[in-house]
């Protein structure tokens, strides 16, 4: 139940003195129905008025307030304004101009001989001072007035006047922010912050404080969801180390430090009853597959089954090949299932899976379809799918009597703040280094006009026995993967492949999303075996493909790709010990953003830096593939504040939940009010339901 102290804030805005039902209906168009909504409707700017004594101190274009003496009235002539002639105290003339209905009743509003305190914007007209539609005040006008986001029929001044009773209604709430943080930041209390924001133009501290409140509420809610998940009964999987140790012994190299750390975090989670929900982030080539395999083997050691999902058939098959190779003679039974498997083969796989004759099932989304029953699924690994949403997670948890552990892997180096806000219920492991011996990919931007030079270079490259990729964008400019609805979307790749075949012959392979599965696999197999040296492709090769002998990547119309995507594509080369090159072919005219993107790609190989830049250039929606903005958007905190304050809010929320998980103590109680205030009621409900 919402604390009673919050009632005044959740009262209908129409009940405020001066609001009334008609006005309340208009406010509703701004999304304002309760007093709380009105208070969180913050000014986006201020209008300043300078009080002056004489027009001698005035400059054109400024808003001023001054006392004037009314001299005479002139009626409107033709389409011109009605004019009231006035003088300031020093005798400098000023014309007050009125158009339309404003021109009525001027004689009564500005009696000749009287003094008026007028306010308005100063203009020069035919060498004289003029003010159009000045306001008259009994005394001096306010020097600063808030400007609110408005809608028809609601002026900023009306909103400001309603703010007075609304601010009076703010109850005295116990502080939920850690006292030391409050002191360090010199933030005002909640009620004080609101009052400052609506009354003082320069209130950065108050703005930060309220943004922080919102972020803290968000992260507290996530922390509560995490806590509830920990309490849910999953399957504790304690590995024996038999398989993982044998695997590690057979490898010619050592785990990197962050592989070791991440694997430890993952197996640590899996040993708990609570179902793991962990995001493994690692740049392309950082070695996520091996970490996943160690986790899968741990599950198998503990007598459970593992599932390994890849986004495309191509990648799933590659994972199967990789796992087969890595496992060698180890006693682990692998199975494979994709949407292409039909009939008898599929039946056999399903039966083996249900009988527990398969230890690890690898495949596409098909492996979680309704008809697919596991004997005892203990761990699901989802590769390259940061879009694996909540509903998909729920579907997965229905695959077993107890929710399986879940490891989601992504090469999209999601910036920390974004991960916290969007994947707040997940724990995050990061692979921050690459396996040793890798050289950074040399990246060059080349104008398409120099295509002949590029082709000559490519010819030398192929003649040396090397392989190369040539990536083309989709026809409609999208580079959204293979789901484009336009049947001709792959046309640029098809045309380019034809041109390259004319020059280089049958060593050219072509893959794109419109190619039927088996045909695509055949092309891919030719490239992987080295039979084909040049692979022309749409972005279907974006993730996961691993051909170390391919050391040249050409990306055509590179300006049409997002940064994160370019980075992913570039990650296809530089996978062996040899030097690799990435050529970004650009078109004739580039937008400023496009220029910056390509420059960024040349300047750095750091996926996290690129992701941060992509976030700035394109916004979170595109980066996460959820174009609808505001899905996780904040109402009060802007992007800059999210970046600056969210990590602290997250730490603070975790700490509070660790100390007082039930939110029973004094600060916990205050935090409950905060959660209601920002409508994270569902999270509070978990406190009892848990
Ligand atoms: P990604 O994170 O992009 O999925 P992969 O798992 O495909 O990366 O690994 C990239 C390559 O690095 C693979 O060929 C893999 O065998 C190799 N690799 C993984 N871990 C190590 C390591 N610790 N030392 C050397 N090579 C490694
Ligand atoms: Mg991978």
Largest sheet: 7 strands, parallel
- Can you count the helices? 25
Report the portion of residues in β strands.
Answer: 15-25%
Q: How many structural domains does the protein architecture include? A: 4
- Helix/strand-derived category reads alpha/beta
**End-to-end CA span:** 16 Å
Mean pLDDT: 87
CATH class of the largest domain, anyone? Alpha Beta
The main sheet orders its strands as 12-13-11-14-15-10-16
| Number of strand segments | 22
Give me the CATH fold name of the largest domain: Rossmann fold
Radius of gyration: 33 Å
Give the ligands present.
adenosine-5'-diphosphate, magnesium ion
Instruction: Give the overall form.
Output: globular
Question: What CATH architecture label of the largest domain applies?
Answer: 3-Layer(aba) Sandwich
At a glance:
By secondary structure, the chain is of the alpha/beta class.
Description of the molecule:
The chain contains 25 helices and 22 strands. The chain is of the alpha/beta class. The chain has four domains: 4-46 and 144-202, no CATH class; 55-137, Beta Barrel (OB fold (Dihydrolipoamide Acetyltransferase, E2P)), CATH 2.40.50.140; 242-431, 3-Layer(aba) Sandwich (Rossmann fold), CATH 3.40.50.300; 442-604, P-loop containing nucleotide triphosphate hydrolases (Rossmann fold, 3-Layer(aba) Sandwich). α7 (190-199) crosses α8 (204-231) and α8 (204-231) packs parallel to α25. Mean pLDDT is 87; it is low at 477-485 and 621-632. The chain binds adenosine-5'-diphosphate and magnesium ion. Adenosine-5'-diphosphate binds at residues 253-256, 259, 282, 284-290, 411, 435, 546, 575.
């Amino acid at each position: 139940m919402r604390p009673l102290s919050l009632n005044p804030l959740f009262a209908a805005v129409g009940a405020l003195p001066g609001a009334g039902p008609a006005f309340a209906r208009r406010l509703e168009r701004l999304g304002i129905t309760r007093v709380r909504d009105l208070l969180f409707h913050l000014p986006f700017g201020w209008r300043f008025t300078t009080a002056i004594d004489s027009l001698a101190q005035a400059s054109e274009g400024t808003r001023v307030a001054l006392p004037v003496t009314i001299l005479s009235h002139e009626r409107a002539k033709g389409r011109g304004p009605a004019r009231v002639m006035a003088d300031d105290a020093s005798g400098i003339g000023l014309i007050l101009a009125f158009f339309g209905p404003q021109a009525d009743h001027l004689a009564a509003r500005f009696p000749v001989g009287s003094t008026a305190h007028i306010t308005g914007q100063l203009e020069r007209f035919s060498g004289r001072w003029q003010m159009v539609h000045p306001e008259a005040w009994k005394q001096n006008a306010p020097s600063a007035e808030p400007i609110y986001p408005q809608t028809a029929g609601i002026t900023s001044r009306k909103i400001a006047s309603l703010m007075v009773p609304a601010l009076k209604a703010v109850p005295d709430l116990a502080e939920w922010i850690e006292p030391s943080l409050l002191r360090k930041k010199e933030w005002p209390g909640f009620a004080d912050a609101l009052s400052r924001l609506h009354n003082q133009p320069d209130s950065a501290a108050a703005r930060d404080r309220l943004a922080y409140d919102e972020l803290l509420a968000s992260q507290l809610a996530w922390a509560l969801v995490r806590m509830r998940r920990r309490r849910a009964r999953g399957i504790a999987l304690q590995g024996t180390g038999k398989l993982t140790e044998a695997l590690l012994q057979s490898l010619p190299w050592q785990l990197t430090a962050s592989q070791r750390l991440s694997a430890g975090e993952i197996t640590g989670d899996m040993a708990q009853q609570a179902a793991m929900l962990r995001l493994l982030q690692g740049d392309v080539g950082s070695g996520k597959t091996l970490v996943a395999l160690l986790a899968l083997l741990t599950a198998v050691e503990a007598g459970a089954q593992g599932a390994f999902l890849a986004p495309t058939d191509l990648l799933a098959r590659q994972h199967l090949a990789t796992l087969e190779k890595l496992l060698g003679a180890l006693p682990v039974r692998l199975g494979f299932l994709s949407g292409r498997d039909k009939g008898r083969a599929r039946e056999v796989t399903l039966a083996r899976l249900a009988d527990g004759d398969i230890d690890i099932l690898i495949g596409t989304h098909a492996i979680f379809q309704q008809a697919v029953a596991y004997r005892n699924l203990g761990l699901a690994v989802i590769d390259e799918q940061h879009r694996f949403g909540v509903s998909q997670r729920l579907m997965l948890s229905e695959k077993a009597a107890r929710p399986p552990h879940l490891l989601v892997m992504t090469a999209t180096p999601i910036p920390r703040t974004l991960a916290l806000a969007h994947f707040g219920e997940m724990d995050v492991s990061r692979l921050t280094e690459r396996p040793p011996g890798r050289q950074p990919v040399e990246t060059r931007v080349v104008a398409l006009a120099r295509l002949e030079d590029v082709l000559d270079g490519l010819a030398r490259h192929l003649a040396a026995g090397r392989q190369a990729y040539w990536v083309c964008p989709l026809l409609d400019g999208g580079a959204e993967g293979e789901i484009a609805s336009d049947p001709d979307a792959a046309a640029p790749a098809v045309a380019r492949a034809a041109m390259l075949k004319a020059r280089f012959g049958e060593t050219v392979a072509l893959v794109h999303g419109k190619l039927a599965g088996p045909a695509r696999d055949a092309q891919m197999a030719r490239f992987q075996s080295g039979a084909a040296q040049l692979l022309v492709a749409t972005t279907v090769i974006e993730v996961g493909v691993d051909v170390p002998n391919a050391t040249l990547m050409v990306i055509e119309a590179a300006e049409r790709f997002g940064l994160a995507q370019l980075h992913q594509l570039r990650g296809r080369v530089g996978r062996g010990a040899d030097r690799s090159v990435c050529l970004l072919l650009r078109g004739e005219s580039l937008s400023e953003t496009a220029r910056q993107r390509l420059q960024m790609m040349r300047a750095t190989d750091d996926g996290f830096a690129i992701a941060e830049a992509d976030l700035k250039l394109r916004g979170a929606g595109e980066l996460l593939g959820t174009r609808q903005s505001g899905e996780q958007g904040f109402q009060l905190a802007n992007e800059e504040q999210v970046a600056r304050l969210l990590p602290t809010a997250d730490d603070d929320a975790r700490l509070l939940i660790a100390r007082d998980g039930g939110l029973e103590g004094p600060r916990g109680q205050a935090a409950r009010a905060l959660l209601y205030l920002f409508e994270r009621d569902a999270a509070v409900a978990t406190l009892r339901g848990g």
